[in-house]
Amino acid sequence: MEKIRIAVRKFDPFESTLQKLWDLFCIKNNVQIEAEMIPLELHDLYEETITNQGLKNGKWDIAHLNTDWIFDAANEKAVLDLTSSINHNPPQDYPEGWSQSLLNLQQVNNGIYGLPFHDGPECLIFRKDLFENNIEKENFKKQLGYELNPPKTWQQFVEIATFFNRPEQNLYGCIFANYPDGHNMVFDFCLQLWTRGESLLNDQNQININNPVAIEALDFYRKIVNNKNAVHPKSKEFGSVEAGMAFAEGQAAMAINWFGFASMCEVIDESKVKGKVDITELPSDLNHKTASLNVYWLYTIGSGSKHQKLAYDFLRFATSPESDKLLTTEGGIGCRKSTWNDPEINNIIPFYHKLEMLHENALTLPQTPIWPKVTGLIDQMVVKAIESDISSEKLLEETQHMIEKLTH
To answer: Which of 40, 147, 387, 391 is least buried, going by the fewest C-beta atoms within 10 A?
Structure first.
């Protein structure tokens, strides 16, 4: 029997949403084809779809790809350019239905290589019940001499995380996702750099991470991650999903993670912090402004798919306002403005409308064919920083040297 094969980013809300959407799509359009959906971890997903050319050779019809990979996928001709399908039969309210910041990254060499699926920039997630507790506020002021509020600076972040770190109550100051998967620690390093006013690119638009601000950023990060008086002891084993789950189970006062893990706290059954969570912008260095990171997930169609028309019809259906809202109530993050401002959604997730604010400060990663390899090098550098005492200066110098080798 014929099947359409979908490579799914492994995450319960994504898996449940996609199954529901396919079932609805089949009923509505009288489609008799079964969908085989395979959930894959980040690394395996990239390997299956791009490295092993699964999208090109027809093994996968549809895949979740994140915007870090789309430049690569488009240049490898792994994914279908959707421009003519969109011109001929656009998704509802395209493009006005989405924020411009969710339409840029999939546009490569004048083609459009995907439709927004799941979003939610990086932010500071915190337990408002702890921050608003009068006894906590009083004790904090006595100890530190200023009012307890979500941290505006990195210095305050460390002080507040230390204050709330109570291992005997299974409560820790903050949680990081330090599992070396080429993503979380790379993003954390970029955020440390950006919130100190530095960029990944030099004046010639080349990647350059060998500078005094980068040393400061890496020094701070390696120190906080290893701070046993402030950080969840399992951070080194956590990817972003595991870090998000630990936060939802009430194990930390703060986390730096994707917006989606804050909203997940309000909708999943396992959450012990429903109604107790809020989000805000990330802290920054004194005299510099906050920043966020915008990496989002796309629906893409394999260039080798034998079901390209059916796949596109499904993508149109899966990105409709109703489908986008369904993803949100399942625990993902819808991408449409209509979902962000939906009264029912904001009733369930009171901070949902703040997505627009996060997008205003959201920066993106460099779009260059070497970026996936650069992330590997930065990832290794941060791991070495955390696990050794080699100076940040030396680590950055070595890594920069390897990045330059990639470009020549």
So the answer is: 147
